[in-house]
Design a protein that fits this description.
It contains 9 helices and 13 strands. The chain has 310 residues and is of the alpha/beta class. The strands form 2 sheets. Strands 7, 8, 9, 10, 11, 12 and 13 form a 7-stranded parallel β-sheet that branches. It has a 6-stranded mixed β-sheet with strand order 1-4-5-6-3-2, with no helix packed on it. Helix 4 packs parallel to helix 5 and helix 4 packs parallel to helix 9.
């Protein structure tokens, strides 16, 4: 009955929840194999593992591949083969995941091109991957969103970077605004930026992004406003109110910026400066959101309004 139900489930075009379900099944098989080798008398473990393998077979029959590892890389192409330095191939756990010659892998280039192939050769310094097919990554939003985030206190920025990358942000620019309590020096900012970039990489791997969103250098507020002028639309989320995001993004842009304040919000002079340079003040409703909640809510609204949650 379960096999029949899975057949029906995977015959429909509804991928919701499949990722976690597939991970659980794959891990269950590995645990079952290991457990049975140690405790040979537990026949029920062998039986459960066997049936789990059957479930995975049904899933693969319907075109859902659970075994292909996915990597970002900056390799050099040689004909139909990419040669990648070992340091360029890391999975979300931070290692090569025990890849072997002949194993199927997916490489994602910095340009967001997804290359499906298999490992042809592994040396002490690099890996050669034979490319079988390539296509633009379908997981990327069609709107390039830049988050201009005023620095919050503590390690809240770690959480903001991680979740915003998962939600589809394309670039994150830390900003020092007038009400920022956290004001690290340049040496500390450099270390923080390196950590934030690693978090962005791990989040991009986990969420199967087509790019690794850049975490830029920290800017002053006037510098951030000047940089934002390159966007088609800029949404300034202001605690004193503004228009709805639906109204601001009535015409879908290709690039958009979003300004989010720190714990104290923005000064009136900062709001005036941003609006004078083309940004539109927006509201997230009557409730006051925490500094780490506001960017997630704002980005989710932007993604929804631009049809990137469909």
């Amino acid at each position: 009955a379960l096999m029949s139900g899975l057949n029906r489930f995977f015959s429909e075009d509804d991928p919701t929840g499949r990722g976690h379900f597939l991970d659980i099944l794959a891990v269950s098989v590995k645990i079952g194999d290991t457990f049975f080798k140690i405790f040979d008398r537990f026949r029920i473990v062998r039986s459960l593992t066997h049936h789990t393998r059957q479930l995975l077979a049904v899933i693969r029959f319907h075109g859902v591949d659970t075994s292909v590892r996915r990597f970002f890389h900056r390799g050099i192409r040689q004909g139909s083969t990419f040669r990648c330095e070992l340091l360029d191939l890391f999975d979300k756990r931070g290692d090569l995941g025990s890849v072997r010659a002949g194993e199927a892998v997916t490489l994602v280039t910095p340009a967001g091109i997804q290359c499906d192939g298999e490992i042809a050769e592994i040396t002490s310094s690099d890996i050669a991957v034979k490319i079988l097919s390539k296509r633009p990554c379908e997981n990327e939003p069609d709107v390039f969103v830049t988050l201009f985030q005023a620095l919050p206190k503590g390690d809240k920025m770690d959480y903001i970077v991680q979740k915003c990358v998962e939600l589809g942000v394309s670039r994150i620019v830390p900003v020092l605004s007038a009400r920022c309590v956290s004001r690290p020096d340049q040496k500390s900012l450099k270390k923080k930026r390196e950590r934030w970039q690693k978090i962005a990489l791990q989040a991009a791997m986990q969420s199967r992004r087509g790019i690794i969103p850049e975490v830029a250098d920290c800017l002053s507020f006037p510098q951030a406003v000047a940089l934002a002028e390159e966007n088609e639309k800029n949404v300034f989320f202001y605690e004193l109110g503004g228009d709805s995001v639906k109204e601001i993004l009535k015409e879908k842009p290709k690039t958009a910026g979003m300004f989010i304040g720190s714990e104290g919000g923005f000064e009136a002079e900062e709001a005036s400066l941003a609006i004078a340079h083309g940004a539109q003040a927006a509201t997230l409703g009557k409730r006051i959101l925490r500094a780490e909640t506001a960017p997630l809510a704002a980005l989710s609204v932007i993604m929804y309004q631009t049809d990137n949650f469909s």
